[in-house]
Amino acid sequence: MDAEEGLRRLRALGFGEADAAELWAHFDEAERRGKRSHGHARLPWLERLDGFDPAAEPVLVEDEAGFQRWHGNGAVGYLTLARAVGHQLADPPGHARLVVCDRAFPTGMLGHHTRRLALGGLVALLTATSPRRLGHPQGGPKLASTSPLSVAVPSSGGDPVVADVSMAAVTWGDVVAGLASEEQLVPFGGDQAHKAFALAVALQLLVDALVREPGHGAVLLVARPEADPVPALRRLAGGVRLPGDA
Amino acid sequence: MDAEEGLRRLRALGFGEADAAELWAHFDEAERRGKRSHGHARLPWLERLDGFDPAAEPVLVEDEAGFQRWHGNGAVGYLTLARAVGHQLADPPGHARLVVCDRAFPTGMLGHHTRRLALGGLVALLTATSPRRLGHPQGGPKLASTSPLSVAVPSSGGDPVVADVSMAAVTWGDVVAGLASEEQLVPFGGDQAHKAFALAVALQLLVDALVREPGHGAVLLVARPEADPVPALRRLAGGVRLPGDA
Question: What is the pLDDT of residues A150-175, one digit of tens each?
C-alpha cells in the first residue's frame, strides 16, 4: 500500500487531513520497522472497527502541575495519544508530568509516540492496555493484555534510543493473520516467562488503577532530561545495534 | 542468621537503631521471598563495602508539585530509597510525583520499596541502575545494568500485586556465590532476549538521563489510584499466583 492509497482510504473513513496523515505516518513507520501487526494491515482492520468517531476530538479533562488526564471522547486511541504527545511537545513539563489517557484504544506501536517525544527532547515511558490475551506461563485464564512498554531517551546526536517491548512471545496481529497460533500467544521468555508475565500483569494493573473510566487506556510519563547519556552509550556500544535503531 | 545477630552486626557498622531495623527488614524480606542475592548475604557484603557513611542523611534537594529530587549524600542506597518512600507515604502527591534519587546504590530488592508504597495506598513504579553487566544477546561490550523494574498496585483487600523483575537471566549475587557463571549473566528470554536487552538499556538510560550527578541512581513514580482493580483480577485469576504473592 502506498501513501496515496492509505491517505485516500483514511479520508474515506471520515478522518480529516491532519489526522489521516498522522494515522498513515504511524502505520507506515510500523511497517518499515518490521512491526507489521501495527502496520498497513491496520487500515483494513480500522475499516471494520466499530465504536469510534473519526471526527471526535480527545479532551484534556485535568491539567495540574505534574499531571494531566485525557479522555478519548470517542476518538481512536492512536489520535488520543497523538494529541497528548503533541501537547507535551508544545508545553513541556517543568520537570515531569504523568499523563493518563482514559478510553484510548487502539494505541498502536507505542514507540511511535515515545520517539516523537524523544526527538522533541523529552524522556518518555509509555504503556497501554488492550484485551486480556496472556495467561500465567503454567496455564489458567487470560489475565493480562500484551502490556507493551516503551521507553525513549533523547540524544544530542539526534538518534534517540527507543525500546518498545510487548510482553507476549508473538503478536495478536500474527495470530489474526494465521502466522502464529493462539497457543503461542504467551508471555515471552521460555523458562523465564514468569518475568514477562509479572510485568504484563503489573503494567495492566498500573493503567487500570489510574484510569477513571473502565476500558482500555494508556499511561505516559514525560520528563525533561538533566543529562545526555545516549552519545556515550553509542560510543561504548561500538557497532552494536541499540533499541529502536533501523 | 537471626534478627538479633543481623541487628547487632548492622549496629556494629555504625547504623542507628531505626536504620539497622530498616536494613534488616529489607534483607530478611528478600531472604524469605527467595531473592537470596538481596537477602542475608548482603550483610557480610555490606561489611566489606567502602564508600558509604552509616550516619549520612539523604537530602531532599528539589521539591515541586509532581517532582522531587533526592541525593544519597553518602548514605547506602537502601536508606536513600527508604527515606524517599517514607516521604511519599507521609506526604502523598495530589495526583502523581516523579522522584529521582541521585547517588543511590545499592537499592536492593526494589519490590521491598514499592510494596511499602502499595500497602500505603499508592501506585508505584521503580527502576535503578548498578554496574553494567548485560551485553547484547549476540555479544559485545557490557552496556546495561540488570535494570530491575518493579511495579506495585494497591488493593482494598490488603494484598497488593508487586512485580519485581530483573532483566538478567541470573543474578550478580549468584555469580558472586558461584551458583552461576558470568557467561550466564545475559538478558533473560532465550531466543527473545533482545526484548529484555531493550528494556535493560532503555531503563538504564532513563535513570542516567534524569540524574544530575553521574553515578548509580533510581527513578520512582508514585501516583494516587483512581480505581481498585486488584480484587477483580484476583477473582478472575482463581488460584493462579499473581506477582509478589507468597
Answer: 999 999 999 999 999 999 999 988 88
pLDDT band per the 50, 70, 90 thresholds, residue A50: confident
Cell of A41: 494491515
Region B104-109 average pLDDT: 96
Give me the torsion for CA of A170, B128, A87, A226, rounded to 10°.
-140
Mean pLDDT of A70-77: 97
DSSP bridge pairs for A97: A222
* Minimum-distance CB partner of A96 among B66, B195, B199: B66
And the C-alpha cell for A29? 513507520
The CATH code of domain B56-237 reads 3.30.1370.60
pLDDT band at A177 (very low <50, low <70, confident <90, very high): confident
Instruction: Provide CATH 3.30.1370.60 ranges for chain A.
Output: 54-237
In angstroms, what CA-CA distances link A44 with A4, A41, A47, A79, B10?
Answer: 15, 6, 5, 17, 64
Is pLDDT of B149 > 90? Answer: yes
Contact A58, A100 (CB under 8 A): no
Q: Which CATH architecture has domain A54-237?
A: 2-Layer Sandwich (3.30)
- In angstroms, the CA B175 to CA B193 distance is 19
C-alpha cell at A1: 500500500
Q: CATH 3.30.1370.60 in chain B, residues?
A: 56-237
Is B61 touching A (CB cutoff 8 A)? no
Q: Residue A94 in contact with residue A235, Cβ under 8 Å? A: no
Strand partners, B154: none
Q: Do B212 and A226 touch (CB under 8 A)?
A: yes
Interface test with B, best of A88, A153, A224, A245 (most B CBs within 10 A): A153
- Say yes or no for a CB contact (<8 Å) between A66 and B62: no
Helix axis angle, B3-12 to B17-32, nearest 10°: 130
Chain B interface test: which of A60, A98, A143 (most B C-beta within 10 Å): A98
What the block records as the C-alpha cell of A119 is: 526527538
